[in-house]
Amino acid sequence: MTDAFFTLYQGLEREGPGEAADVAWVADLLNLPADARICDAGCGSGADVPALLMAAPQGRVTAVDSHKPFIDELLVRVDADPRVTAYAGSMAKLKGPFDLIWSAGALYFLGVEKGLKSWRPALAKGGAVAFSEPCFFTDTPRDAARAFWDGYQTTDQAGIGARVRAAGYQTLATRRISDAAWQAYCRPLQARIDALRPGADRELSAVLDASQAEIDTQKRVGDETGYLMSVVRPA
User: What pTM was computed for the model?
Assistant: First the structure.
């Protein structure tokens, strides 16, 4: 992650789309116990940690991200809450047991099949994984929708399900990440881009341009592509 990228995202609540309602939906679906052990894999600066704590108020959340400055921001966000452990490290090497592994927009760094296989030993008996993955919502996405994911091997809901099965899991339920969740990410990001434009150097300007293109394209292709949240469990 470049210094310019962190300059853009430093202090923002989110590094990707999401909302507390996504966490609540997963918790209700799984009948998550109040003392659940949860891992937020690829946590960023911890936008979902408060909702995870709300879902399991007597539980614990272990948050991991490869970028230490995000972990530093997360620790400030949770204000030394004893229920939260956060560290910079690889989300491919989780040590459980966890009743829920939550990963919002981050599993694609490992790949669905590889990531789910690597996480299986970290799941407690009966444990589940909830992850959001780039997804096409139409059989005929436009070129702009395909380009939105910058070369990532994006597929549709059936394709994601096939990757889940190949990893030895079963899908319990799916849910699209909502327009409101995208706005919770895009609106503050747009404000930050506008604030940083004056005086931005070449490196930062390139990052701002890329993020502006992401926002603009998402508005045009949001009906064709976005994130699909899947809740899965070892078969």
Answer: 0.94
